[in-house]
Amino acid sequence: MKYIFLINTFSLKDKTNYMIDKIEEASNKFGFKYIIETNNEKRSTEDILDSYKNKKETIIVIGGDGVINRALNKLINTKNTLGFIPFGTGNDFNRYAKEEFKDGINQCDVIKINNKYFINIACFGIDAEIANNSDIIHSKFIPKSQRYNASIVANFIKFKAKKFTVSVNKEKYENNFSTIVVGNARYYGGGYKISPEGIVNDGKMELYLVDKLSRLNVALLLGKIKKGKHTNNKHLKLIKTNKLKIACEKEITANIDGEELIGKTFNLELIPKAINIYYDKRLIKFLTK
After folding, report:
1. In this structure, what are the phi and psi dihedrals at residue 67, rounded to the nearest 5 degrees?
2. Which of 169, 198, 237, 250 is spaced 20 to 30 A from 280 at the CA atom?
3. Multiple choice CATH, 2-109+275-288, 3.40.50.10330, 3.40.640.10, 3.40.50.980, 1.20.810.10
4. Residue 208's pLDDT band (boundaries 50, 70, 90)?
């Protein structure tokens, strides 16, 4: 088997050369063929992926959840297989993979949101504002494990719940929701277990609607979400579905797998078994140790 390793140099920065050396070492140790690609200011991740379109390659992206999302959006509906090595801030999709994936090919549902796709989590409201605070989430001065928590503190001060209309299963829910989360897998925010029952090949997505809450109650709820103990909370409604619509009175910025998405209306539909994900615990352990 030949692997195409795509290194996101913006995530790895000064560790890029280290990763190149580790890939070469892994190829000698495990006996596989490989090509190494690196993005830069002149050649983007998308440019590289376009060059392999429909060549039936296994393309392994090295970086965080955002680069997985960008690769997914290029590889969906092609003959390529997507693999990943977690080397980002949150690595939340890898948390799910460690729990559920077998080594080799794993067929996964994806969720289409307007004209884009995601495989892990989409959020709207305070969760999106926390995740989209790039000054904190990508700060080199804050440890990776604490960046999401730091963003929570920063966004609590200014956050105001927004009025949403959510249409799902012939029902409409109108409220000033604190947050709305749509899950395919389980984790976001660097380990918060928002969707504990999420399975990426069960044909359903999990919709979480959280009522307008005080800052104190939001903080208490987040504490429960961290451990996946929130699903019976009286301020939260869980709905499983394969199609829904989220609308807001004003334009907002949502967050899908670490990437920003701006709009007033978001149409979501689950596409069953739409992408093959290659997972290799042995390789991940070797390249990230």
Report:
1. -75, -30
2. 198
3. 3.40.50.10330
4. very high
Q: Where are the domains of the chain?
A: 2-109+275-288, 121-272
The domain 121-272 having CATH identifier 2.60.200.40: the answer here is yes
CA gap 213, 77 in Å, rounded: 40
**CA–CA separation, 107 and 272 (whole Å):** 9
Rounded-to-integer distance, Cα 116 and Cα 84, Å: 19
Q: Quick one: 287 exposed, middle or buried, by C-beta within 10 A (0-12, 13-18, 19+)?
A: buried
Outline where 41-143 has alpha helix (H): 45-50, 65-75, 92-100, 126-131, 134-137
Amino acid type, 222: L
Q: Which two tokens stand for residue 284?
A: 């991940």
> For 235-264, what is each residue's pLDDT tens digit?
899 999 999 999 998 888 899 998 989 999
Q: How many CA atoms lie within 13 A of 202 on its CB side?
A: 13
Residue 10, token pair as written in the block: 């913006």
Cα dihedral sign, 80-84-89-94: positive
Instruction: Quote the CA–CA distance of 3 and 62 in Å, as a whole number.
Output: 12
Intrachain domains 2-109+275-288 and 121-272 with the same fold: no
Inter-residue contact 245 to 205 (CB < 8 Å): no
pLDDT in tens, 50-84: 999 878 999 999 999 999 999 999 999 999 999 99
Closest by CA position to 121, among listed 40, 203, 207, 48: 207
The structure tokens listed for 133 are 């605070």
